Amino acid sequence: MEHGEHRSCAYGLRHQARCLSAIKSTDGKSSFIIGTQELSRPNEVHLLTFDEEVFEISTTIFSHPHEVWDISASKEDPDLFFTCYREVIDGKKTRSKASLWRMKHGYQEQEEDGHEGGMHHHQPRGGELEHILSLDIGDGSVKKVIWQDRTEVISVEDWRICIWDIDIKLGTAKLTGSIDTPDREFKFASAVMNPHAQEVVAVYGRSIQGWNLSSLKATFTIKDAQPALLFCVDYNPNRPFQIATGGDDCKVRIWDVRDITAGPIMTIQDHTHWVWSVAYNKFHDQLMLTSSSDCQVNLQSIVSISTGAEYKYDGDVSEGGQGADEDGEQGDNVQDPPTDGLVQAFDQHEDSVYQVAWSSVDPWLFMSLSHDGRAVMNQVPSEEKFKILLNY
Amino acid sequence: MAAGANATIHPLEGHSLTGPHRTTASGTAGNKAGTATGTATRRRAKSFLRNYYGIQQADAASQDGSKDNSSAPSGPTSKADPYDLDSHAFEVDKYMHKMFVEKQLPGLVQADNELVADIRQLDGDMKTLVYENYSKFLSATDTINKMKSNVDNLESEMARLTQNIGKIATSSSAIHSSLGGKREKIRQLNGVHSLLTKLQFVFELPTNLHQCLETESYTQAVKSYCRTLHLLQHYKHLTVFTGIERECKAIMVQVAQKIRQKMCSDAATITEITESVGLLLALKEDPVALWKQYLELSMSALRKVKTKTLEEIKTLPLYSAPSAASPKSAQTPTPGTPRRSTKKAARNGPNTPASTSAALGAGSTEKEKETRIKSSSPPPADKAAYLNAFFLKQLEAFVVSFMNYFLVPTAASVTPANSNSGGMAVATLGEESNGSDQRLPAWVTKDTRAQANLTREQTSEASTKVKEAVSNMISKYLDTIRSFLDYPNDIFSIEPQVHVHVLQNLYLGTQSSTGLCQLVGFDTLATGLIQNWESQLIKRALGKVKEGLMSRIVQQDVLLAQQSPRLNNNATAGDVSLSLAEPLSTASAPVFSWAIVLKETTLWLLDGFKVDTIPFLEKCMSSDAQFLETTEGRALFLKNFQDEFKTFWDLILKEMQQRSSAISPSSPALPEKEAISKVSFGSRTSSLVMSQLCFELSTSVVEQLYKTLSKTLFRVGKRNRSGSFLIESYEEPPVLPQLQWDCKAVIQACQESGHVLLDGFIARTGNELSWLVMDVRSETDYMTLESPPTGVSVAWETIYRQLNEIERQVMMVYGDEGERLGNHEISSESTRRESAFRQSGGGGGVGGGAGGGSHSGSRPSHRNDSLASFGSNTMNSRFDHQQRNMLLSNIDKLFSDRVEIFIRCQDLNRTGIMFGIIKILLKAWAESVRMKTFGKGGFQQVQVDAEFAKVWLWRFATADERLMHSLLEEAQQTAYRRCIDALPLDIHTVESIINSFER
Questions:
Q1: Contacts of residue A294 in chain B, CB cutoff 8 Å?
Q2: For B90-128, what is each residue's pLDDT tens digit?
Q3: A294 CB near a chain B CB, below 8 Å?
Q4: Where are the alpha helices (DSSP H) in B487-521?
Q5: Which pLDDT score, from 0 to 100, does residue B15 have?
Q6: Would you put residue B862 in left (φ > 0), alpha (ψ -120 to 50) or beta?
Q7: Of the candidates A186, A272, A350, which has its C-beta nearest B901's C-beta?
Q8: Nearest CB partner across the interface for B764, out of A39, A224, A227
Q9: CB-CB neighbors (< 8 A) of B669 in chain A
Q10: Which residues in chain A touch residue B764, judged by CB atoms under 8 angstroms apart?
């Protein structure tokens, strides 16, 4: 699956899926887990490990009792992850649940159905999931579980956000605090942890709001500041106060939460349908991935408002970031500095792409997952990579 | 006889040059004038010359004498012709022989006769010649004799003359020497006399000064004193002079005191102050103290003048018709009060009697004259001119004299020129010249160097101080001028002449105030003010247009909003199917009127420019203002306008976009449907209206406006009075090159904004409808919906109603080109499709290709077909074969183009816009279905809704029905997959449910 000068690697799950999470692996290989979403078929959790040397994805498949709506891997233990799932009770109604699982890698499973040709990945291995604990979810459905650290997680439900103390060894979870949605009209759509402070930022309806985790008080509110319903939010990992949101007006907006009245500091519109996922690169926050139900994954460069801009442009941020030879230390054949704008649009998907995630190991690697169960591993184009490396 | 021949020949000689023998001029001359001595000698001389130069040519002439005129025909050209009588080579024998051979006897006889006659004639000629020459010779002899006797006489006369002259010379020198001594004496005496006069003046000086002091003619006193000062200084060692000097000084101190007093008195005018300062300077007062005092006094005086003037101009009009045109009598009443006061000022001003001092006298008489002139030709009858005349001129005068007194470094060379130029500038005003008498009297500058000898530091200090004070004054003056220029709300109510007149006065003021320009950059300040005025004017004029446009847009929007609920109510109140049955016919009437409304707006805009803005600005430009007269000023004005015009468009477009985005959409899922249609629809349409307006602008209006501008404001060459362009408007000149870029940019911007606004409209409308279908707040529990569903879901009914409403609005604004035709096409297309279905009736309609159009006429049968194709495989089997279907639809997707939902709408008509909305709606539905989990009833509801959409919404999706069907199909399949216990409804059940809606 080569695409031009840069290579990508695709994997078919043969199930519908909408959630994907990067695993903090210890062996230096990029790994992701994907939970499938099939209402009336057995569901699975796929652990994909990418071997860069052979450029192949190897898979371990775990069976999961119910359809997975969201999955989030632990930031510390590569074997731990939460899933948010729904179980059908008596064929009448569904109940939303969130559980912590541990992957137990087991035997080499013989292939069952045989995998379709064309996919270059190792034979799937099997494994078992060990249920560790479940969170006690209220009425609404749980959207998401966010890891704070080993002992604290946050669950995002329809009408509230809960903070839990968990003990993995004992398998217990204790609710320590909750935040109700400030607007009874809209459910929480998504949330993200502020990596710089004890703060959670959530989106609901057309609003964005942050809460301090210890005081449970609102830190900022951007209410109805834009016409779109918001679906996703991400926090700049390197730069405090900067968040990015996406929603049903195809636009990605980047905000500085210190100055709400000024409106978004940047608005990007390269999608032609709703934006479902937005992800900052953890290493180079000038790179941002967005995925959309127009079946595209876009790699954006937002260098002018990134941390890169700070020590490169000395605060004198120019939109285009032009001016190639600002410091001659790179020699004559210095690369042009990266500029704002779409770096590349990846169109290998045939269905809506609900989630995209950067590898937690390789700063240039990411995976996107479309609803038809196709996971595609892509890399930042080497040209852009060199631009960034040579200029910083 | 001989004499007669002579007489006849002579004229011939003169004539001969034009005769047949011109080529041998000398020859012919010779043969004719053979008897004439003059010619003969000439011929001889010529022949000599010819020989000398070795010219052979005319040798033939030597024989000319014997040659006959009549025998010449043989031609002189043949030189060596032996048969030529005139030739050298003439040989008698040959000639004779030839004659004998050629001619008969009678010929020979005749020839002989001719020859004889010729010879005789020649003989006669010769005789005449000889006679003539002889008589001449005689007379010459006589003359010579006479001359001889005369010369003897002359010599004696000359000798006498010489003698006499010698005598005169001696006597004259004698007289000279004898008178020499006396002359010297006279000269000495003369000197003594003048010295004595001077001395007398000096000795009388104290008395004179006293007298001057008494009569208060200080100028005279200072003048006298200054003239004698150097004398007194020179003869200081003589006691007499010391005494006088002392005395004079004492008096002069008094004089100085008096002058000071006069200067400091409250009533002192600026003229007097200046005069006094000049005098004091001449008296070598301390210049530093003097300039300070001068400045202070002048400023207070000027302030007084200013307040007085301001007081006086209150009653004056801003602008009065040119005085030349109006009769005197008519003019008098208006400026009555001020004129009287002017007179008073002129008379009261100089307190001194007019006769006392020469300089002041001259000044005041001049003033009197001026006032008299003024009373005959009225004083400035408007505020600005009055202000200029009574304040600015004074200020200028002060500045000029101050500079002359204190600031000019090398006095002697610069001052006269300066004061001259100042004077000239003042004089050029041609009006009253208050300033002229403020110039230093010539004697002061010339004789006594009235310039203060200030050090460099002192000069700079003085200049900064005076600059400060004067700029203060000037800024106040400019403020006053500015206050004359008011910009009322209705900018077009301004009489441009008034403003232009005021500014014209300002401009003239700068022209005449070189001193002020030099000192404080008055001209740049004034130019700034004028510039500011221009841009204000343009900005306000354009702002007015913009305001009008915006209010029109709001009006239209209100109109549209008013129209919609009425129609909407009609639709909802009556049977829904009624509005469905003939939506086009009900909409057609407002469509027509709406097009007119839009047209009216653009026409209004064009007219607004043609009738108001451009003539207004043109009027401003075409008035006879000098500051606009120069090409520079004109170019500046136009540049100003061009820039402002461009920003005008930018602002309009910006405001439109702001307006459209500022109206935040109402809560996405309002429970009350009517509220949605009223609140959000009314405001939403403004984007629609504005987008159409933008397109309208970009297609014609902007270019038209620029064309109009090209032939009006920006017309090169002579500008005529305004209005002319309206007459010649039939010709469409191209947009001027300097405007072309702007024009293109504006058109592009308009188009862009139009798209942005339209896309905004589509996206907003689509989103609002999507929110209905997405069920944002999860009010419906699809798990527990009853089965089978009783009808189409509320959301879809609402959507259908709103779509009809929106379509109506879109058609009202954008029209539906070939509406009937389109309808017809659609119907024929649907029947075509229908027949296609009939043919493939039994075959399996896989994936989203199956479609159902609907037309009122053929609806029932068609629906059957559609449903038949839908259910060609039984429902269950179709959904069971989902995997295969998925694969097929995936393959389908692979080969079909990527579907872009939120995308620029390219078809600016009903079809394009409605399809844009439908696309957003259906995709949103397909997406939202994925998020839900369905029970049996829920899935069936989706099934019903999808069928409903297929049947009722096809009309909005004529652009790409295939896409619509694939999206609906996808929604159904997803719902099936997300259903716990899927049991698809029977076709007939679905049909009956939808039919129940129709009822």
A1: 898-901
A2: 888 888 888 888 888 888 899 889 989 999 999 999 999
A3: yes
A4: 496-512, 514-520
A5: 41
A6: alpha
A7: A272
A8: A227
A9: 185
A10: 227
Residue A88 contacts B where some CB pair is shorter than 8 Å: yes
Give the separation between CA B659 and CA B554, rounded to whole angstroms. 10
What was the pLDDT predicted at A107?
Answer: 52
Using alpha carbons, list the distances in angstroms from residue B360 to B100, B217, B593.
122, 9, 81
Helical ranges in B817-960 per DSSP H: 819-839, 859-870, 875-880, 882-895, 910-930, 936-952
Highest mean pLDDT among A81-85, B27-31, B249-253, B651-655: A81-85
**Rounded Cα–Cα distance for residues B75 and B95 (Å):** 15
Chain A and chain B share a number of CB contacts under 8 A equal to 76
The pLDDT score that the predictor gives to residue B12 is 39
Going by C-alpha positions, the residue among A85, A35, A32 that lies closest to residue A62 is A35
Residues of A in contact with B767 (CB under 8 A): 227-229, 248-249
Substitution target in A157, A273, A349 with the highest count of B β-carbons within 10 Å is: A273
B668 at the A interface (CB within 8 A)?
yes
List CB contacts (< 8 A) between A86 and chain B: 933
B927 contacts on A by Cβ (under 8 Å): 274, 293, 352
A227 contacts on B by Cβ (under 8 Å)? 661, 664-665, 764, 767
Sorting pLDDT into bands at 50, 70 and 90, what band is A29?
A: confident
Model confidence at A279: pLDDT above 90: yes
Contact yes or no for A282/A298 (Cβ under 8 A): no
Amino acid A9: pLDDT: 87
Instruction: Find, in chain A, the residue whose alpha carbon is nearest to that of B923.
Output: A273
pLDDT in tens, B375-407: 444 555 667 777 777 777 777 777 777 777 777
CATH architecture of the domain formed by A8-180: 7 Propeller (2.130)
At residue B946, does pLDDT exceed 50? yes
Per CB-CB distance under 8 Å, the chain B contacts of A144 are: none
Cα–Cα distance, A145 to B283 (Å, whole number): 101
Mean pLDDT of B689-704: 81
Note if the bond before A42 is cis, omega within 30 degrees: no
B862-881 as b/e, with b when 16 or more CB fall inside 10 Å? Answer: bbbbbbbbbbbeebeebbee
In B58-104, which ranges are continuous DSSP H helix? Answer: 92-102
Q: Where are the domains of chain A?
A: 8-180
- Alpha carbon of A238: minimum distance to chain B alpha carbons (Å): 32
Minimal Cβ distance to B901: which of A228, A229, A273: A273
Asked whether the beta carbons of residue A249 and residue B763 sit closer than 8 angstroms, the reply is yes
Residue B911 — φ and ψ, nearest 5°?
Answer: -60, -50
State the average pLDDT over residues B899-926.
82
Whether B983 and B976 have beta carbons less than 8 Å apart is answered as: no
Q: Residue A233's pLDDT is what?
A: 94
Residue-range domain boundaries for chain B: 2-157, 339-520, 542-773, 781-998
The two three-digit tokens of residue A340, written as one number: 């704002």
B658 and A CB contact within 8 Å: no
Interchain CB contact of B794 with A (< 8 Å): no
Residue pair B34/B125 in contact by the 8 Å Cβ criterion: yes
Nearest one of A276, A273, A255, A287 to A358, comparing CA atoms: A287
Q: What is the DSSP letter of B491?
A: G
Q: Which residues are bridge partners to A275 per DSSP?
A: A292
Position A111, amino acid: E
Contact assessment for residue B358 and residue B220, using Cβ atoms and an 8 Å cutoff: yes
At residue A354, does pLDDT exceed 90?
yes
Selecting from A39, A274, A350 the residue whose C-beta is nearest the C-beta of B890 gives: A350
Across the interface, whether the CB atoms of B667 and A185 are under 8 A apart is answered yes
Rounded Cα distance between B510 and B526, Å, is 7
Of B753, B503, B560, B535, which is closest to residue B645 (Cα–Cα)? B535
